[in-house]
Amino acid sequence: MKKRIISLAFAAVLALSAVGCGSSGTGTGSASGSASGSAQASASGSASQEEGTDGKVYTIGISQFAEHGSLDNCREGFIKGLAEEGFVEGENLKLIYENSQADTGTAGQIASNFVAEKVDMICAIATPSAASAYNAAMKTDIPVIYTAITDPVMAGLANEDGSPVGNITGTSDKLPVDAQLEMIRKMLPDAKTIGILYTTSEVNSESSIKEYESLVGKYGFTLETMGISTISDIPLAMDSLVTKVDCITNLTDNTVVQGLATEIAKATDAGIPVFGSEIEQVKNGCLAAEGLEFVSLGEQTGRMAAKVLRGEAKASDMNFETITECGLYLNTAVAEKLNIEVDSDYAATAVEIFDTIAEQ
User: Fold this and answer.
1) In the predicted model, is pLDDT for residue 46 greater than 70?
2) Dihedral sign, CA of 12, 18, 21, 23?
3) Which of 26, 230, 240, 318 could form a disulfide with 169 if both were Cys (CB 3.0 to 4.6 A apart)?
4) Looking at residue 169, what is its pLDDT?
């Protein structure tokens, strides 16, 4: 991965409190909108295949579970990956984008609507959307391509050998837990207990916690977890969690990431750092992450989708893929705010360093 250094100098202490990534709302309605910049989604008209100057126009329904940076980056990468493979919106591709705003019932409605409109493919971003899309399309010939699924096997979307359970495949954003724990130990040599805030209904979070439980002892940590049901549970849960831990590490938990601002504010008030799981969380106030680059994950997913659209492969025949390259992301403004000294040699290994906290 190409190294990009924004700044190696420690920024002055910021007076503003940490802000979150993406929306902090939990709306139950479906939010239609733009798929990304130059790729504007159009939900009008029939989703049936049309004929254009270059031949068939394919329609893909994009179902995104929540609105926050990492999932947005997956969508951006997915569209980019398709374009690189010759599927460009406005030429031979039509996109319908729907966001369920972290509501599983809405995710199911979106998937059912896509099936009723007879789209050529469903792209499902995050585990609840993928499960809904698979169930809705199961008795059709509509392939489902997913992304940002931590554990496709545990989610019931793949077999133990990685093969699909049906006409569905995609990419996993499995966290590099071992590398994350090694990073935390390097940055906090005296820390003893790591906390994790997670949503009890998210299968991906349960899978990640199991891996953390199996590895924390290797680095001399103990683990304290705190489960929540909705974003409104975060303040009270954090009030309890910060009294028991030396730091907090995030998962790719959609509800927690939507409430990142609250989580970080509570932790900062207690003088406790929060470690992220990807670049967007570090931009928005987490101290550091040994994380994945979600645009790249989306691009990988787009390339898989292109193979299916071209008829080169069937989703039912393609094992899910993982992105293997992770890197250190660091926010020196957060380090300064919490009086945490980061070794300059270690900082120099970072893929990207931020010296401000992004305003959202």
Assistant:
1) no
2) negative
3) 318
4) 98
